[in-house]
């Protein structure tokens, strides 16, 4: 049997300090990629809308523009830039035309889900709750599907509903993954996800 070597004095403290640094690197990298993706997609939406406004004021023109852009960009950057995703970027800009209203705490996946809320008041509610309660994208989707905003609007016991929601959130939220969603291919950072995950796998 191999004899266990005695622990070097101060080893545990040194190991913990290194682990803390690596954890911070991962979190900072994740946050930076989130901001880069949201910024890029907002800009793409803005450019698309501005181009539409310069063209013919017809729905057919906007659809044609998205089709043409998706064909060109998909050929170069992959499926992440198809017509559906470009349409979401366009909707993102139209919903948040003022950049300062875009919250850096939320990822692109959060915003994709928020765009499903057609009621502006409901969207603001889910946006604030996602930030304040630190909802994962899975939890945000669950709350939107459960019509939490509508249930609160109809309930006389608003605090009670919120308390139940918070307890459910704690039990349903899995540990947050450090991986960047693979569907986030972007012209601004086409290889960011693969590079970041390869780097993290070596840490």
Write structural notes for this entry.
This protein has 203 residues and is mainly alpha-helical. It folds into two domains: 12-99, no CATH class; 103-174, no CATH class. Helices cover 67% and strands 0% of the residues. The protein is built from nine helices and no strands. The chain has helices at 11-54, 59-77, 83-95, 108-114, 120-132, 137-145, 148-154, 158-172, 192-201. Helix 1 crosses helix 3 (83-95). The longest helix has 44 residues, at 11-54. It is flat.
Separation, N- and C-terminal Cα atoms = 30 Å
Shape: flat
The total domain count is: 2
Mean pLDDT: 75
Fraction of residues in helix: 55-70%
As a percent range, the share of strand residues is under 5%
Can you summarize the main beta sheet?
none
Order of helices and strands: HHHHHHHHH
Count of individual helical segments: 9
Strand tally is 0
Question: Helices and strands: which structural class?
Answer: mainly alpha
Low-confidence stretches: 171-203
Rg (C-alpha, Å): 22 Å
Write the layout of secondary structure elements.
Layout (H helix, E strand, L loop, with lengths): L10 H44 L4 H19 L5 H13 L12 H7 L5 H13 L4 H9 L2 H7 L3 H15 L19 H10 L2
Helix pairs in contact: 1-3, 4-6, 7-8
């Amino acid at each position: 049997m191999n004899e266990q070597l005695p622990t070097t004095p101060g080893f545990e403290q040194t190991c913990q300090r290194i682990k803390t640094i690596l954890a911070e690197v991962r979190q900072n990298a994740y946050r930076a990629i989130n901001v880069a993706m949201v910024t890029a997609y907002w800009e793409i939406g803005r450019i698309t809308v501005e181009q539409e406004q310069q063209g013919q004021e017809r729905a057919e023109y906007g659809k044609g523009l998205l089709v043409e852009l998706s064909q060109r960009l998909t050929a170069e950057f992959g499926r992440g830039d198809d017509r559906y995703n470009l349409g979401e970027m366009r909707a993102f800009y139209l919903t948040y035309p003022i950049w300062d209203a875009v919250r850096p705490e939320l990822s692109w996946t959060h915003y994709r889900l928020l765009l499903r809320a057609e009621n502006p008041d409901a969207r603001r509610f889910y946006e604030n709750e996602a930030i304040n309660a630190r909802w994962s994208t899975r939890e945000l989707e669950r709350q939107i599907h459960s019509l939490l905003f509508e249930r609160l609007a109809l309930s006389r016991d608003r605090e009670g509903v919120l308390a139940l929601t918070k307890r459910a959130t704690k039990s349903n939220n899995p540990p947050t993954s450090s991986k960047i969603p693979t569907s986030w291919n972007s012209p601004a950072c086409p290889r960011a996800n693969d590079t970041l995950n390869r780097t993290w796998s070596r840490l």
